[in-house]
Specification:
Largest sheet: 9 strands, mixed
Shape: globular
Protein name: Oxidoreductase
Helix content: 25-40%
Pfam families: GFO_IDH_MocA, GFO_IDH_MocA_C
Number of strands: 15
InterPro entries: Gfo/Idh/MocA-like_OxRdtase_C, Gfo/Idh/MocA-like_OxRdtase_N, Gfo/Idh/MocA_Oxidoreductases, NAD(P)-bd_dom_sf
């Protein structure tokens, strides 16, 4: 019987604790966390208690953990985006396999350098682009790559972020401010950009983009609203984003469990009184866009769009890919996951009374979030480490290239040539 992989967890927050650490507890034969690093003593304590981690293997910072020469084979890196470059590079230099939370990092030159460090190390570096490991998106990938659609002529990809999710993560949360974290197109849509680079048979040649922060601005705050919701807001009854309505109910799963390790009512009230999740959504420091559209030209012909916004009632993605032979449509939400194929024939379009052919994705893994992708990426990482499967890290870079090219296009109101942009990025990475 294969022994479980001994691992260090860097960052015991929402993804680190609720996804990767939870998976390890459910699969003790595959992965065991023997050490943890997190600046929050409460998060370290719960990891020690639940995973049997000794006190001398619990660290307040990731540097001390990596300098401790722990008896580990792998590192699961769930630190904040801006810490990825230094920490991930150091992990690879230490000779550990690494599962790195997406995105690679919050700057393009750093992403290139991480990829180079991984290639030089000869160890597994897997990015947690979990949609690759879902039966749903794997099915879309296989249909498109098989040629059933013919030549791809156009695609429409829509990322609809629920307004509550947006307010939690991108107004009050860790990804609210570009300087402190990542631009919205990278923080939220790196999954989508990874999917486009993985699914489409053609690379993207040119792109342009428009977007802005439309709603969550101070001029839109209710009259008389205080800085913090619990300080007597006159709009408490009517504002959908009042912190008490989101964080002080009987519901204590995500996103509520992010605000504190103490889920008692008093613990949550204290978190709202002192932390960012109690701040009025119209008076925070957020500057990331709440709506954005990207237009693409494909190499060899074809076009497409990516639309993202934070004002949806239902969280989910809508996909349409048109080819010369058929059209694929797909809906991926918490409530519904459906894929249809529409052949471009007279019979299916006019004579059958309904031309959508359902495609059933394999049942696959569905035990965790993102349609089974969280479970899938953990399984894939363990298998890669056990089998010594080293895949080119460059496969993950295209989503990073696209995200930063999109931001350049949006900020400069320009069209970006992707071939030239990739070359510029490679040169900048060498200059630092």
């Amino acid at each position: 019987m294969t022994e479980p992989i001994q691992a260090l967890l860097l960052g015991a927050g929402s993804r680190g604790y609720d996804v990767f650490a939870r998976w390890a507890l459910e699969h003790p034969e595959s992965l065991k966390f023997v050490a943890v690093a997190d600046p929050d003593p409460g998060k370290r304590q719960r990891m020690m208690e639940e995973h049997g981690i000794p006190l001398n293997h619990a660290f307040a910072n990731w540097q001390d953990a990596l300098n401790a020469n722990l008896p580990i084979q792998a590192v699961v890196n769930a630190l904040p985006d801006h810490l990825h470059e230094e920490s991930a590079t150091r992990v690879m230099q230490k000779g550990y396999h690494q599962l790195l939370e997406k995105p690679i990092t919050n700057n393009l030159s750093g992403a290139v350098r991480i990829a180079e460090a991984a290639e030089a190390s000869g160890k597994v570096l897997m990015l947690a682009y979990v949609l690759r490991y879902t039966p749903f998106f794997s099915t879309i990938h296989d249909v498109v790559q098989s040629g059933q659609l013919g030549e791809v002529t156009h695609f429409e990809w829509s990322e609809n972020v629920s307004s509550i999710h947006y307010s939690h993560s991108f107004v009050r949360g860790n990804w609210s401010n570009t300087e402190k974290s990542s631009p919205m197109i990278l923080a939220k849509c790196s999954h989508d950009l990874d999917q486009l680079s993985w699914i489409l048979p053609k690379r993207i040649k040119h792109l342009s983009s428009f977007g802005s922060l439309l709603h969550f601005r101070e001029e839109n705050k209710p009259e008389g609203a205080p800085k913090r919701c619990l300080d007597g807001c006159p709009a408490a009854e009517t504002c959908a984003f009042h912190a008490a309505k989101i964080y002080l109910t009987e519901y204590v799963s995500w996103p509520v469990n992010v605000i504190s390790t103490d889920m008692s009512l008093d613990g949550r009230i204290k978190a709202l009184q002192e932390g960012p999740y109690g701040v009025c959504v119209y008076q925070s420091d957020n500057d990331v866009v709440d709506h954005q559209v990207v237009m693409f030209e494909l190499a060899g012909g074809g076009s497409g769009t990516l639309a993202m916004h934070g004002h949806s009632g239902e969280e989910g993605r809508y996909v349409r890919i048109d080819g010369t032979k058929a059209t694929l449509r797909a809906v991926f939400t918490d409530r519904k996951q459906e894929i249809w194929l529409e052949p471009h024939t007279f019979e299916t379009s006019y004579l059958t009374g309904g031309h959508q052919i359902p495609i059933q994705a394999p049942s696959g893994t569905a035990g965790m979030g993102h349609g089974g992708g969280d479970d899938g990426v953990c399984q894939a990482f363990v298998q890669a480490v056990q089998n010594g499967t080293i895949e080119p890290t460059s496969q993950y870079l295209e989503s990073q290239y696209l995200a930063f090219a999109i931001e350049e296009a949006r900020n400069q109101r320009s069209m970006v040539n992707m071939e030239e942009f990739r070359e510029r990025a490679a040169v900048r990475a060498l200059q630092v």
